[in-house]
Amino acid sequence: MSGRKQAGDSWSNASRQLADLVRTERLAQQSSQESVAREARLATSTVRKIESNSIREPGVFTVLALLRALGLPLSAVEDLVSEDRADT
After folding, report:
1. Rounded CA gap, 40 and 76, in Å?
2. Considering only CA atoms, which of 14, 28, 24, 25 is closest in space to residue 58?
3. For the domain that residue 73 is a member of, what is the CATH number?
4. Does residue 39 belong to any structural domain of this protein?
5. Which pairs with CB-CB distance under 8 Å and at least 24 residues apart come from 74-80?
6. Rounded distance between C-alpha atoms, residue 88 and residue 85, angstroms
7. Among 40, 53, 64, 75, which residue carries the largest CB count within 10 Å?
């Protein structure tokens, strides 16, 4: 079966931090997962899985849609990636 190469542990810290960022920002805005999903044009289950860190490597367009829906700048995730990669 052909598929996307998994990054493994090198992105696990960034993935956890993304989950925390999305959940923390959503709660700070007093938004539901459903409303964020609707705004981002994603399935509610996708938002739930990202927040629970069940999706370890969400697609770039998924992350961008979440950032837009939450009103966060791209730099919010650039920092996560930079911090994680510096640890390797």
Report:
1. 17
2. 14
3. 1.10.260.40
4. yes
5. 76/21, 77/18, 77/21, 80/14, 80/17, 80/18, 80/21
6. 5
7. 40
Residues 25 and 72: their CA atoms lie apart, in Å, by 9
Locus of tokens 């837009």: 68
Q: What is the pLDDT of residues 21-57, one digit of tens each?
A: 999 999 999 999 999 999 999 999 999 999 999 998 8
Query: Rounded to an integer, what is the distance from CA 64 to the centroid of its chain?
Result: 9
Give first-to-last CA distance, the chain, whole Å: 29
* Domain that includes residue 41, residue range: 10-82
For the full predicted model, state whether its pTM sits above 0.85: no
Query: Running DSSP on this structure, what letter comes out for residue 80?
Result: H
What is the C-alpha separation between 54 and 66, in angstroms, rounded? Answer: 16
- For residue 20 the two structure tokens come to 């925390």
Give how many domains the chain has, as a whole number: 1
